[in-house]
Amino acid sequence: MSGTKKPVTFKRLKNQFLSVVTNPFNLIVFITLVLLVVLIVIPLLRMLQTTFTLATSEIRRVPGGAAGDFTLYYWTRLFASELSATKLWKPLANSLMIGAVTSVIAVPLGAVLAWLMVRSDLPAKKIMGLLIIVPYMIPSWCKAMSWLAIFRNSRTGKPGLLEGFGLMIPDWLAYGPVAMILTMVLHYYAFSYIMVSSALRSVNSELEEMGEIQGASKLQILRKITLPLVTPAILSAAIMAFSKSIGTYGVAATLGLRAGYFTLSTQMRAALEGSSDTNLGYVMALLLIVMASGTIFANQKMVGTRKSYETVGGKGTRHTPIPLGKAKYPICGGLIIFLVIAMVFPTLILIMETFQVNTGGGYALSNLTTYYWTGVNDVTNQSVHVPGIFNNPEFLGALKNTILLTVITAVITALCGQILGYISARGRNKWYGKLTEQLVFVPYLMPSVAFSAIYLAMWSKPHWFIPSLYGTFALLVLTSVVKHFPFASRAGTANMMQISSELEEAAEIQGAGFFRRITRIIIPLAKQGFLSGFMLVFISIAKELDLIILLMSTKNRTLSYLAFTFSKDALPQMADAVTVCVLAFVLVSYWIAYRFGGADVSKSWG
Amino acid sequence: MSKLVLSHIDKYYGTNHVLKDLSLEIEDGDFMTLLGPSGCGKTTTLRVIAGLERPQNGNLTIDDNEIINCDDAYYAEPSKRNLNLVFQSYALWPHMTVFKNIAFGLKVKKMGTKEIEAAVMNSLRLMRIEEFKDRYPNELSGGQQQRVAIARAIASDPKLLLLDEPLSNLDAKLRIDMRSELKRLHKEMGTTIIYVTHDQVEALTMSTKIALFRDGRLVQVAKPIEFYMNPVDLKSADFIGNPRINFIDAVAELKEEGLKVSSELGTNVFPKDQLTDETLPTGEFKAVIGLRPEQIHVQKEPAPGLIPAKIYASQPAGSETLVTVSVGALNILAKEIGILDYVINEPVYLRINPNKLNVYNYESERLIKRVISKKLNDENDD
């Protein structure tokens, strides 16, 4: 702001005050910023503070220390003590290795598939394109369950499919890094596929045809023209897959803990659940956040400026498919085999296992039962002492909780997303718009499990007028809402950007006040975008395990957590049945979102 | 009654100074066009008047009522200014029918259902789009949407109607139709109109007054003919008129009997009553003659007072013929009505009325000698 300095007069101050106070928009911006600080900045700072504060449980270990003292104890204990190797360096190395290998395999796979689906003349592209992204809709912990259904060995549980055939499955294959990597590859290849294929779609094939006219061969065109144009998208996909997989919890816990294989996130939970050293867990959470946000920032720094490539080439509407020639049908066949092995087959095994009396015991009629679905607790012919899920109060309670949580959270999140989007869109070049965007982005930088650790640290004690939320349903809702802010607000911003501010100005000139403009102009026009935003948040929360696992109590379990618990308690059929329910729930929701909400699966979260 | 006075308005976006000490008076009943290339501040001026932007310095009064007083940080609400605005994008609400679009503002003003219906139908009739009242905006063509946008703006009978490049999204033929429509509307309603455009033809054909903007400053405010005949500086002269004005380098000197100007076209002495108030350098100084292409009459036969020239190129275009002629080392463009045929290098003779010449100071670029014409006198007598 420049211009000459004005003399401060009473009239001037009064007018300035009135114009700020009488505009409801200012009030909403103010409240939003306060809430964002309370919900995002303060919890982060609180957790940081906790890691430097001596807790009662460690007073003995620090000579002369009193509870509440400032201390470097936790940081030195984690980074430089006899514990460091097992608590930090080993799990950290495991996390990094898994993240790196996962993205090294998943991203090229996704990129190749993307090229085939977008640019080649592969037959049945439409249905294949859909099937390829189905694994992305399936929560990654469900895939871990399928893995167990196939590879489990009887040393640490009940036999899986392969052991039933008489194959001895070694521990390293059943549990641990190989299992985790392969499971996550199935998740992140679809993620990279979505990113790279949208980049490829924006490349005008005239650019490639120009290369052809200049006399370049197909391979040269691919290497010198197409690939450089989508490199930013591929790099982004690699970095995002890496950043997301190093912080993952559900897969790492399901497939790692039995073999004593820890990653940083499972080690963190172990620390947080222990009776002492819980503050160590917070240090680990911070470490996870630093790693994940560091890679995302690196991505923006490196790729951000080059990203403009994607839109180069203007319309990008014309696409002449590149003929694969003789390779067409073999490639198509390979793709089908891949999809069957990676998706269809494991899902079938998972479903079938829920009907087996003894897992790994084959599919003879004598080994089939519907007990795990509909059975009543009947001790005479079952070795299991829990009723089938439809008669199981735990399942019914979890089902109710899941539906309540998804619906309530999705409504609140989608609403907040629209408000945040409105502020970001209207404040595009103003300080408050930028600040809102930056604050809202912060939860995105944190792995889910670390984010919930922050909330655990913050809200398990009473603050201001808010009582301790430890173990409450409210904490689940709050955590899920804030963690989904970045996603919902991005959808909201995109939605609001479509509504030209002139439409509102036209109403303002006609004398319509703020609330009238919101109810009569903005809301009717934002409805469709709100609906699809709602559905995507809804699905994302229904899938969630990592985010809520730290916050579970016996009263507020969700389906995903129940499956996880059954699996841990060596009740694979029960775990599978719950997983199948979640799968069905998620896929049906996707279908509804796609069919009625106009939602785009590729915009969905993690 | 609606007289609008902007005084010393400054508007910054961050450090970007978009309106620079702008002062402008708009009389009741004027059709004032804010003209200038894109980014010159004309739309910002309109938005300041509408109340959609708040300037940092300056005042605005409408009918002597204070609307903006930056010293007191006072800005009247847009709805309290009794004006309406037609956006370049039309900004029709896509979820409302044409009728509801127009009725919205009236409902906000809490008018009765009967009155609303009457007012809406009246403005629909004025714009001749009654049959579209139940359609949604996306079911209308661009020209029809345009009419709805105007109907919406005039329904509340505003004292001041603001139009932001309303014709820029229409094709050439529709634009001509809408020009006459707007001119008729102005006459019928008697409303003061402020009209923003970068199109000089729109400005010249419709306005009662034109305000020319450049780089956030107001360069000239004048009636259309004066504006066309006597642009205040070289840049404005260059901006106005199609085909472009001819610029001819000259040397000038102020003498007892008047301003003596010599160039390839010969030497003229202009009486002092044709000069502007610009202060002139003493002795000889560099000057530029401005000569509109239609003021050059090309003749095939020599006669006293005519300037000998040669045909350089000729472009017949049906209703008019553009002829480039060389006078010595100089190439100038002439515009003749009708189809005329010339052969390249054919000798011709130019008749130029010295009264119809503009002379500019080369250094200051300001107008020093005005065009004298009967039309101008008529206009000024209005």
Report on this model:
The complex is a heterodimer of chains A (about 600) and B (about 375). Chain A is an all-alpha fold. Chain A has 2 domains: about 95-325, Orthogonal Bundle (MetI-like fold); about 385-605, MetI-like fold, CATH 1.10.3720.10. Chain A is about 65% helix and about 0% strand. Chain A has helices at about 10-20, 25-50, 75-80, 85-120, 125-135, 140-150, 160-165, 170-175, 175-200, 205-215, 220-245, 250-255, 265-275, 280-305, 330-355, 370-375, 395-425, 430-440, 450-460, 475-485, 485-495, 500-510, 515-545, 560-570, 570-595. The longest helix of chain A has about 35 residues, at about 85-120. With about 375 residues, chain B is of the alpha+beta class. Chain B has 2 domains: about 5-235, 3-Layer(aba) Sandwich (Rossmann fold), CATH 3.40.50; about 235-380, OB fold (Dihydrolipoamide Acetyltransferase, E2P) (Beta Barrel), CATH 2.40.50.140. Helix content of chain B is about 25%, strand content about 35%. Chain B is built from 9 helices and 22 strands. In chain B, strands 7-8-9-3-10-11 form a 6-stranded mixed sheet, with helices on both faces. A 6-stranded antiparallel sheet of chain B has the order 14-13-12-15-21-22, with no helix packed on it. Chain B has a 5-stranded antiparallel sheet with strand order 2-1-4-5-6, with helices on one face. In chain B, a hairpin with a 2-residue loop joins strand 4 and strand 5 (about 65-70). The longest helix of chain B has 18 residues, at about 170-190. The mean pLDDT of chain B is about 90. The chains are: A mainly alpha (about 600), B alpha+beta (about 375). The interface of A and B includes residues 16 and 502 of A.
Q: How are the SSEs ordered, and which strands pair?
A:
The complex is a heterodimer of chains A (606) and B (382).
Chain A: H1 10-21, H2 24-51, H3 73-79, H4 84-119, H5 125-137, H6 140-151, H7 161-164, H8 171-174, H9 177-201, H10 205-213, H11 218-246, H12 250-256, H13 264-273, H14 278-304, H15 328-353, H16 371-374, H17 393-426, H18 431-441, H19 448-459, H20 473-483, H21 485-497, H22 501-509, H23 514-543, H24 559-568, H25 572-596
Chain B: E1 4-13, E2 16-26, E3 31-35, H1 42-50, E4 57-62, E5 65-69, E6 74-75, E7 83-86, H2 98-108, H3 113-126, H4 142-155, E8 160-164, H5 172-189, E9 192-197, H6 200-206, E10 209-214, E11 217-222, H7 224-229, H8 234-239, E12 246-254, E13 259-263, E14 266-270, E15 285-291, E16 296-299, E17 307-316, E18 320-327, E19 330-337, E20 347-352, E21 358-361, E22 367-369, H9 374-381
Parallel strand pairs in B: 3-9, 3-10, 7-8, 8-9
Antiparallel strand pairs in B: 1-2, 1-4, 4-5, 5-6, 10-11, 12-13, 12-15, 13-14, 15-21, 16-20, 17-18, 17-20, 18-19, 21-22
Helix pairs in contact in B: 2-3, 2-4, 3-4
